[in-house]
Amino acid sequence: MADIRRAVRESLGDLSEGQLVLVALSGGADSLALAAATAFEAPRAGLRAGAVIIDHGLQEGSDEVAQRAAEQATGLGLDPVIVRRIDVGEQGGPEAAARQARYAAFMSVRKETGAAAILLGHTLDDQAETVLLGLARGSGAESLWGMHTVIGPMRRPMLQIRRDQTHQSCVDQGIEPWNDPHNSDDRYTRVRIRQRVLPMLDEELGGGVALALTRTADQLREDAEALAHFAQEQIGDLVEHAEAGLSLEAEALRANPPALRQRIIRLAVQSEFHVSLTRQQTLEVSRLVTDWHGQGPLHLPGLQVRREGKRIFFTAA
């Protein structure tokens, strides 16, 4: 309980007196422990604390679960307590669709209430599952960063807290959490990782796998932030704006290590054309720098890339 309170206190440390924070409350042990800690810490920091409860309508009796969570939030002293029912589409699968609809609802409630932050109950174990999923999908270094502690108004105070700590915190405070049946439904990939893969890795590798995965995510994020900083510093010197696009100096790009060169290319394209290049597309552009032998232009979604002399030109398609 003390560890969770400390994590919340640190997360709220930069907010101003009188501001409102909302806990995203499902009624499960993680979010309930977070709600209790926030109800304790926020008034001591001069902040107001409330809760937002999203009823996805995906299970029978979901309205009753939402109402019970609202009553628990009120009992903890949170105010306002807002219950919002949402319609979950099917785009990207049920998990992705529910997440997208939930976050849209969070942003809507934040706008209505003027809340400075919304606190999410993800734990170190959730972080480890996210990193392992990214590793399995081979989506590149950015997918291995895991979840950010702060991204916009969303904050995750408990990314260094274990799931068993949140359960114990609820026991210690006499709070009874709701057990979401989806959390034990092995049709979901994340549930299989939680119940089968991580326990098996712990058993075979001697434990500590979740901690190792989250340490890896932290280190990768630090490295990526450094690369982003260096790319941003260089891009002003390398870029020249041209009609319907921009150009980059090929030899200056070539002088950079591949990781930085490719990040500069992606950043330039994203900034100018609002297009996210895949790794393969980025490598094709990079070959115009490192393996130039007169090849013709590249036709990528939304833009054309060609080399003329000492510059690489990016123009809108």
SSE layout and pairing:
Blueprint: H1 2-11, E1 20-24, H2 29-44, E2 48-55, H3 62-76, E3 81-85, H4 94-113, E4 117-119, H5 124-137, E5 150-151, E6 154-155, H6 163-173, H7 189-205, H8 209-238, E7 239-242, E8 245-249, H9 250-254, H10 258-273, H11 279-290, E9 298-300, E10 303-308, E11 311-316
Parallel strand pairs: 1-2, 1-4, 2-3, 4-6
Antiparallel strand pairs: 5-6, 7-8, 8-11, 9-10, 10-11
Helix pairs in contact: 1-2, 2-3, 2-6, 5-7, 5-8, 8-10, 10-11
Task: Produce a short descriptive summary.
With 317 residues, this protein is an alpha/beta fold. It has helices spanning 2-11, 29-44, 62-76, 94-113, 124-137, 163-173, 189-205, 209-238, 250-254, 258-273, 279-290, and strands at residues 20-24, 48-55, 81-85, 117-119, 150-151, 154-155, 239-242, 245-249, 298-300, 303-308, 311-316. The strands form two sheets. Strands 3-2-1-4-6-5 form a six-stranded mixed beta sheet, with helices on both faces. Strands 7-8-11-10-9 form a five-stranded antiparallel beta sheet.
Please tag this protein with its features.
elongated, 317 residues, Uridine Diphospho-n-acetylenolpyruvylglucosamine Reductase, domain 3, 11 helices, 2 domains
Description:
With 317 residues, the protein is an alpha/beta fold. It folds into 2 domains: 2-214, HUPs (Rossmann fold, 3-Layer(aba) Sandwich); 243-316, Uridine Diphospho-n-acetylenolpyruvylglucosamine Reductase, domain 3. Helices cover 52% and strands 15% of the residues. The protein is built from 11 helices and 11 strands. The chain has helices spanning 2-11, 29-44, 62-76, 94-113, 124-137, 163-173, 189-205, 209-238, 250-254, 258-273, 279-290, and strands spanning 20-24, 48-55, 81-85, 117-119, 150-151, 154-155, 239-242, 245-249, 298-300, 303-308, 311-316. The chain has a 6-stranded mixed beta sheet with strand order 3-2-1-4-6-5, with helices on both faces. Strand 10 (303-308) and strand 11 (311-316) form a beta hairpin. Helix 2 (29-44) runs parallel beside helix 3 (62-76), helix 2 (29-44) crosses helix 6 and helix 5 packs across helix 8 (209-238). It is elongated. The N and C termini lie far apart (57 Å). This is tRNA(Ile)-lysidine synthase. ATP binds at residues 26-31. It is found in: Cytoplasm. Belongs to the tRNA(Ile)-lysidine synthase family. It catalyses: cytidine(34) in tRNA(Ile2) + L-lysine + ATP = lysidine(34) in tRNA(Ile2) + AMP + diphosphate + H(+).
